[in-house]
């Protein structure tokens, strides 16, 4: 046979190339040539089968190419625990948990939450907060607005931003989205008269504020005039204000205190450290027109111990603050430069957070100018019984004088508005 002679020639050739197994088909059967035996065997080919894939290919390698999000969604359906024997056990999550996680991942696509049960909404807010959805630049604001529009004070009823002016500058729109706040602390933020947040205080969304702390904010008479204009004319804005702190604002004078007389519900007022010229006249004016009595001792309402952030978004505000602090940390590539400056004797300017001092020089000069309204249940005052008793004896006489002053001011009510006031009101 011609094919056997050809095969024997190939087997006995001096070529050292390994061509692998050689197969020959004859009469419908496949034969393999055995080089060791020097002949042909009619056997089924088992050694070194032909493969279409390389040795490094595996199915596991293809699975590892999936993105992390798809892998996390696949494992999030189960809860993994360990038994006492150390064996791994997993159980499927509830349908509610799966749906809650899915909605929280896409919380910015919610159209509205008005009418949605608040018990489930709180869990949804916590789930989105754990994923830091409200810390995202654009989608976080849109998601937060959906909650504040539907639940108001439940999201946040008290907000303390004392000495956090960087958080205000970075998250101003998010802060403006909060509604129905009852307590707002903006102390030591150096906002000034023209800040957008102070203008927002006059809006209807913050008409529920009862406690407002604006200590050390570089305010002047112009800022107070703008802040009290809706109350003085339209009976809107901060009409429900009970506690107001304007201490350590030396640009506020006697003229600015006159704008505060429109706060008829005011129970406690702190104007220590302001630029008053005639302190005695201001004290008498506050006592006669709105019934505020000068306190001889510091009031608990202004010690800033009761002001804190409360509501669903408490952790969200902390996340904002942590993000700002992380952004302020010096980078690693700048540390070597700072070290070099110190080595060559050059001073390096480091921006630090300006902390508000509790006692200002202006406060020491003008003394304690805190006022309170007598016979108020909600105003907890550290007053001595002797002082309180002496005020009660003079209470009737003060009421009579106050009524006469109200009648006199009511006749001149149409003369209280200036051209600047009307121009300001036209902007609302």
The count of β-strands is: 12
Query: What does the main sheet amount to?
Result: 7 strands, mixed
**Low-confidence parts:** 1-16, 36-41, 61-66, 347-354, 358-363, 383-394, 408-415
The name of the CATH topology of the domain at 156-328 and 367-373 is: Leucine-rich repeat, LRR (right-handed beta-alpha superhelix)
Main sheet: strand order: 6-7-8-9-10-12-11
Question: Tally the helices: what do you get?
Answer: 18
Mean of residue pLDDT values = 76
By helix and strand content, what is the structural category? alpha/beta
Strand content: 5-15%
Percent helix range: 40-55%
Overall shape: it is elongated
Which value, in Å, is the CA radius of gyration? 39 Å
CATH class of the domain at 156-328 and 367-373, anyone? Alpha Beta
Architecture overview:
With 428 residues, this protein is of the alpha/beta class. Among the domains are: 96-155, no CATH class; 156-328 and 367-373, Leucine-rich repeat, LRR (right-handed beta-alpha superhelix), CATH 3.80.10. Helices cover 40% and strands 11% of the residues. The strands form three sheets. Strands 6-7-8-9-10-12-11 form a seven-stranded mixed sheet. α4 (95-105) crosses α5. Keywords: Leucine-rich repeat, Repeat. This is Leucine-rich repeat-containing protein 42. InterPro entries: Leu-rich_rpt, LRR_dom_sf, LRRC42.
